[in-house]
Amino acid sequence: MVATRTSGVLGTRVDEVDTPALFVDLDALDRNVARMAATITGSGVGWRPHTKGIKVPAIAHRLLAAGALGVTCAKVSEAEVMADAGIRDILVANQILGEAKVRRFAALCLRADPLVAVDSAEGVAQLNQAAAALGVRPRVLVEVDSGMGRCGTSPGSATVGMAQRVAEASHLRFTGVMAWEGHAAGIADPEAKRAAVIEAIGKLVGSAEACRAAGLPVDIVSCSGTGTYMIAAHVAGVTELQAGGGVWGDVHYRDHFGVDHECALRVMTTVVSRPSDRYIVTDGGFKTLGSINAMAEPVGIPLGQVERFTLSAEHGNLRLNAPETTLRPGDRLEWIVGYSDATVFMHDQILGIRRGLVEEVWVIEGRGKLQ
Fold this sequence. Notes:
This protein is of the alpha/beta class. The protein folds into 2 domains: 118 residues, Beta Barrel (Lyase, Ornithine Decarboxylase, Chain A, domain 1), CATH 2.40.37; 156 residues, Alanine racemase (TIM Barrel), CATH 3.20.20.10. It is 29% helix and 23% strand. The strands form 2 sheets. Strands 1, 10, 11, 12, 13, 14, 15, 16 and 17 form a 9-stranded mixed beta sheet that branches. Helix 3 runs parallel beside helix 4, helix 4 crosses helix 5 and helix 6 packs across helix 7. The two termini are 23 Å apart.
């Protein structure tokens, strides 16, 4: 069993824990989970939440208990962490190439039932060779480029050709198709966003239908993330959604993707210096709060009062446009996380807080799993 340096903080008030400390409001987390589960599974679609920004098996089990059918991971090493925790149905929603990676994925099939994405002949060949060496037959999804322009085969005939290649491989099981319509997530106008999401997913569903027409059975049509799940859940032909980060809620999802979830993920810092009544310095810098896609927001200080917020390695530097005299060195300053994906991976643990008290201490077991 993994021990933590602060396992003795259970029952402690959140404003008394050592800082910087990453924590989640459990009541808000539970409400976000219930909301996502109701929207997705309530529409008759499966829920396979992405855990790249969650990284804690105990929270993945929380989502499974709420109705998720499995989980999604970004890397084989993340999938191994989830398998170690007893989770079997795991999608690695990325292409994996190279002898070391395909060998690890094949070995994972000996204790779980994972899926993996492909979009190249090389990927299919390497996976098949590794699977044959261990006598396993993993499930494979062909990734379709539905408009994001990152990975995936072109919709239609190119996808069918790749699916046929998988189906003909001796030790692979063609199971379906997947895509991520991320290019549509940040569209501000609701109707334009809806149209873009539906158009993108239409390319995925159309590719699935083309595979079926070619005699290839398609069991899984997987897509979507937190920024699009409210729309994707109602698109005919989709079998499962990968939205996961929304259980945290953060500034990025709220402001850039229009997701009105509660911001449950927070960081507690200590004020370490007050050079003036318009300058606050805390002990949380970019190694604590992250700085990708969105900056953290201070709790209790109106954004209109913030003139400038910068992060150095170990310090948060908050300049105000009006005097603030209540916070003194040694006081606490809480922050709403800017982007959970850019924050969770930097911490060793997450504290689960309910009504101001530490109720859970979770080791972030998926931290550093990059392979």
